[in-house]
Amino acid sequence: MDQNIYTFHKFHSVFILPIKKNNYLRKKLLNIIKLEWKLILINEGSLTQVLHSLSGNKLKIQMFQKSNKYYKNIRSIWLEDSLYTKLIFARSMWMYKYINEINNKIKNKKPLGKSIIISQIDILRKIHEINYGYCQYLEYKFQSNIPIWGRKYTLYYNNKAYITVQEFFSPYIANFFK
């Protein structure tokens, strides 16, 4: 599966931390990331549920979907709190040749993590990289002018790569830890 997701907008990385390469460098860089961001970036659970628990607010999802000849679903979402504060921008690409196998099990109108929990399917998440950088469009949407954290990962079901996800996080999320 192509691990490169075009996010529609130029994201300028200050650094990209590849998760599987150079274990020594990865550990060194992980040591400079603040604890609250580590909890978000390397979280293996439902990020929607984690943010709901941290904020105490119900979260809303704005979803946009399209298809092309390689992917059945290209889904972009904004996750925001009840005050319409945008918390996460995510884009997922669902492999066309496997889509029916997993699509029948999960609910497309819900956040991906929540759908997987509800459907009780067993998946493996492989994080490829953690990003830190700038994007004028995302900074505008997040109402922030400081660097943005992001990550890219692939979800596997029955040992097949089904969905590659790229997420970018509002700096506002760090306020939930104060």
From TrEMBL:
InterPro entries, per the entry: Chorismate_lyase_/UTRA_dom_sf, Rv2949c-like
UniProt entry keywords in alphabetical sequence: Plastid
Pfam families: Rv2949c-like
Domain of life from the UniProt record: Eukaryota
Cited Gene3D superfamilies: Chorismate lyase-like
Stated name of the protein: Chorismate lyase
